Amino acid sequence: MSGLRVLVGCKRVIDYAVKVRVRPDKTGVVTEGVKHSMNPFDEIALEEAVRLKEKSVASEIVAVSCGPKQCQETLRTALAVGADRAIHVTVEGEEYEQLQPLAVAKIIAKLAQQEKTDLVILGKQAIDDDSAQTGQMVAGILGWPQATFASKLLKEDGYLKVTREVDGGLEHIKVKLPAIVTADLRLNEPRYATLPNIMKAKKKPITTLTPKDLGVDTSPRFSVLSVEDPPQREAGSKVANVDELIAKLKAVGVV
Amino acid sequence: MLLSRRLLQTQSVRVLARDSSSVVPLTSAHYSVKRHDFARVTELDLQEFRSILGDRVVTNASELESYNTDWLRNLRGQSTVALRPKTTDEVSRILAHCSKRRIAVVPQGGNTGLVGGSNPVFDEVVLSLSLMNEVISVDEVAGTLVCQSGCVLESLDAMLAKRGLMMPLDLGAKGSCQIGGNLSTNAGGLRLMRYGSLHGSILGIEVVLSDGKVLDLMSTLRKDNTGYDLKQLFIGAEGTLGVVTAISVLTPPRPKAVNVAFVGCRSFEAVRQTYLMAKRFLGEILSAVEFMDAASMQLVEKNLALHNPISPQPFYVLAETSGSSDAHDKMKLDTFFEYIMKENLINDGSIATDYTKLRNMWALRERITEALTREGVTYKYDVSLPMAVMYDLVMETRQRCVSMAKCTVGYGHIGDGNLHLNIVGETHSKQLLQLIEPFVFEWTARHRGSISAEHGLGFKKADYIYYSKSKEAVNVMKSLKQLFDPQGILNPYKTLPQQ
């Protein structure tokens, strides 16, 4: 039985460890000159794909990223970790600023059809917009089953057995292939790209496309009104005794 | 054979949990050292201190414990009073009084020293600089900072970060150590190879002398060749020539692009070659080169659950670059990697693709000390050696101690020729100590190395100075000490050998 063809989304986001600053015009956050790297949940998605390939469950991994030319750096990392090929969907400037999950979902769905993908693995959400929508929308567009917030993945015959992290605990489901899976934090621990693989990755192919090539309309469906800092945390105050504590709690209407 | 005549018991280190019930032995009971003929603090002295400082005079025994005890929980003094001045004038008046009364004083910053240089041995008064933590000025264009000496290093760096600047040094104790203490110990740290030593980056100081006189050597000038450069004497003097109250330091621009590579080498010779190639290919963007051996990696994996990003190797090298253009730096790194892989200098390696991985790689090196303390009783040595022989000391020590030690690890600032050699024993053992000392010191001296590369001499290593300095040199040092502190009240029992 031949292995699965896997498509993995790799979004380029502001590095997790960077202190994000709001732009003075409140239209967004400062991205100029700020360190960017692969969305941590996408790293986990990619790692899962590579593990499937190592178990001979997957036969080919294609990494995809939508955005400006710097996304190719993200894709080179994906290739170094273990993807076989990469697709860069070029989206620049204004179009990129307005790129929203629905448009990305359409792009990924189209690619999945073109590439005859069996399994799409995405991160559960991106750490810049926290939308957590793309995977679900891809499933809706393609009419495929979705196994979101996956913390464990196993292939059995033509099915995927997935453990999902839900509020009440863990949910175990079985989905038919082809399917969409979105990766949660505890699915795996991503490996580091090692130098020999980083060198080899330079020779792996990256195909460049535009959303137009895929017939996708990327116009936004909602507009961002403003982006603001959370309210400043106020300093606490010390009270001298219990009576004062009660008085203060009463004053703010808590007791 | 110059064995410290002061040492009664082991010099080993056991960092116990910060549990008040575990008592640290008194330094004076543990080591053979005699109290000099200083005056003892009386009620009249306390009154005088209170008239200068108000309620910033600590006499409560349990509060004094932290001033009296060193960071490694190895040494404990018996001071009955700690003073907390806020201004240079207060420091001046305190020292004028102590000089008049012949009361000994220990200047103390963050109390993170590793050789007992900032703790009392007997009842010396602790002069804490902790409240002198104000930033006086920052010149973004010139890249200079003027501040009081009690400012914590990490706080200074965080403040400078907002202005695109950074402190020219970095070390594991950054969250607690103070810049005055860094200056007084000529602290080295992780980035010395890029930003140089404090002898170069300190522009000026304000120091109070033993009689209370304030010596103003403050300057923000980059160049000033007018007479003898007195501030150099105080840098590294470990508080024995004067109390530094304010400093002026160069603050380099904060790099926009930082990258870390972690590689594995099959031999120490390969480590040296990798370091040489790093200098050649990465040159001006290289900001740190550290090495660690397989034993160190095993400890951090075992005791701290950290993960090796590459396959197990005999040696590991961490190389950090700091520059103003990520694209430019990545290109240089690419060329460097291609070369060292082609030449087979490395067996494996990885480069951090995001900040979290970068911090994880640094953690493997920075947390070795922590991993050691969890393994057992650690015997610490910090030596400078010619790079060609550096690891030979580790191998020979390991061989010598193989029957008695749990492990012997070597790691350090290879870029600076600085080895941190640590031997771990199950318990305090005089036999194990005798296998190590004076072997390590004699070995180092034979290769014309330094028996204390960056930790200083403090209390623990004062008597070992002759392993690295001649008698003539030490005599000149003693003359200078006599000149600056004729009564010997500033940090006695430290830095220079007792004789």
List descriptors.
heterodimer, A: 255 residues, alpha/beta, two-stranded antiparallel ribbon, globular, B: 499 residues, alpha+beta, seven-stranded antiparallel sheet
The largest sheet of chain A has its strands arranged as 9-8-7-10-6-1-4-5-11
Please estimate the helix content of chain A. 25-40%
Number of DSSP helical runs of chain B: 18
- What's the story with the biggest beta sheet of chain A? 9 strands, mixed
Strand content of chain A: 25-35%
Task: Please report the total strand number of chain B as a whole number.
Answer: 16
Q: Largest interface, and how many residues on either side? A: A-B, 18 and 22 residues
Distance between the termini of chain B: 16 Å
Mean pLDDT of chain B: 92
- The end-to-end distance of chain A, rounded to whole angstroms, is 67 Å
Class computed from helices, strands and strand pairing of chain A: alpha/beta
- How many distinct beta strands of chain A? 11
Give me the Rg of chain B, rounded.
Answer: 23 Å
Oligomer: heterodimer
User: Largest beta sheet of chain B, briefly?
Assistant: 7 strands, antiparallel
Radius of gyration of chain A: 21 Å
Low-confidence stretches of chain A: none
Could you explain how this protein is built, in words?
- The complex is a heterodimer of chains A (255) and B (499).
- Chain A has 255 residues and is an alpha/beta fold.
- Chain A is built from seven helices and eleven strands.
- In chain A, the strands form two sheets. Chain A has a nine-stranded mixed beta sheet with strand order 9-8-7-10-6-1-4-5-11, sandwiched between helices. In chain A, strands 2-3 form a two-stranded antiparallel ribbon.
- In chain A, a hairpin with a 2-residue loop joins β7 (146-156) and β8.
- In chain A, α2 (71-81) packs across α6 (195-201).
- Chain A is globular.
- With 499 residues, chain B is an alpha+beta fold.
- Chain B has helices spanning 27-30, 43-53, 61-68, 88-101, 153-161, 179-184, 192-195, 198-201, 231-234, 268-282, 294-304, 326-342, 355-366, 368-373, 390-401, 430-436, 439-446, 471-484; strands at residues 57-58, 82-83, 105-108, 125-128, 135-139, 144-148, 202-208, 214-217, 243-250, 257-265, 286-293, 315-323, 348-351, 377-384, 407-413, 418-425.
- The radius of gyration of chain B is 23 Å and the shape is globular.
- The two termini of chain B are 16 Å apart.
- In chain B, 50% of the residues are buried.
- Classes of the chains: A alpha/beta (255), B alpha+beta (499).
- At the A-B interface, α6 of A face α12, β13 and α13 of B.
